[in-house]
Amino acid sequence: MDALSRVSAQVLDSALPSLPLYLLQATAVIGMIGVLLIATRRAGHAIEGRRLYVGIALGLIYLFNSWFVARYTQGVVKLHLGFDILLVSGLLGGWRGGLACLAAALLARYQFVGTQFFLPASLEAVLQMGAGVWLRRRLHPRMLNELSPRMILQAWSVRIGMTALGLALGVAIIGADQLPVAELAIQRLLALPVSLLVLGAVFALVYNDAQIDAQRQREQAWLRIDPISGLPNMRALGERLQHFWHGNDGLGKACLVVVEMGNLRDLRLRYGPLQDNGLWHRDTPADVQRLLPSLAVDDVEVYQFGDAALAILVRGMSLVELRSQAHITELAR
Q1: Can you give the pTM of this predicted structure?
Q2: Could you tell me if 163 and 265 lie in one domain?
Q3: pLDDT digits 0-9 by tens, 274-301
Q4: Residue 21 within any structural domain of the chain
Q5: In the list 32, 35, 74, 186, which could disulfide-bond 11, CB 3.0-4.6 Å?
């Protein structure tokens, strides 16, 4: 116990002077990840399309961080954010981004440390990156839609588990006599609180970034909805027709019926815009199905066509076949 206490005291004395630089590392890494999300956002990439960018950028961040630690951190214990960067690369970048960051991590290890203990260090790096990929499968896309402390703690617990497993593998491969086990263990324990802060900040950045995509999707959906009737508008109809013909190579059968709604025009002229959104949205498809009982429910799509008309898209039926329907004239009443 006395020996362990002496080692712990020596490690703490060595680590405490580098703690401000370690916090500076964390701040820099969080800031660079935020800049990465902003820069690729301006290039028009949604979050799902940036996995490789994230991996390459995190690999460069890892290289810079390793250079910073090797140059400016003194003492036996050099606190380093490498494990967190690798975990985040797998979490945000998947296999492609994770492998890109892993390659940069191995290069940094060889460049700034050399070949000493290269095998166990490489295994630890692979474990952290693989843990990030596993977390992505469990937490994605839920982490884009909510910012939950439970998810952050889950990622942190996986980080702790992989750190312990990596240290155990290193001892098994190299041997306890060849490794400064106590120093390595205390070094990893000292890094854990800052690791929690980094993971929490990354989850917050990703969540806020994803909300931009969600807001854009809502805005695009609003552009395709008539504000008064609540039905899809002419823009949505045009996109639907293009999608239908492209999907069927121009061979599918469909027809479009435009029904003038005189009563709706009179109602608007008398009362102005209706306060009750969804006037026709709920009942109109059912009414069309009632008038055309031989059609399947999924064959009818109703759109707002101008101020006082409805467009009814009937799929799987030609215009000649539609005209043969007994109740087709009732749509005009």
Answers
A1: 0.73
A2: no
A3: 544 444 444 555 655 555 555 555 577 8
A4: yes
A5: 186
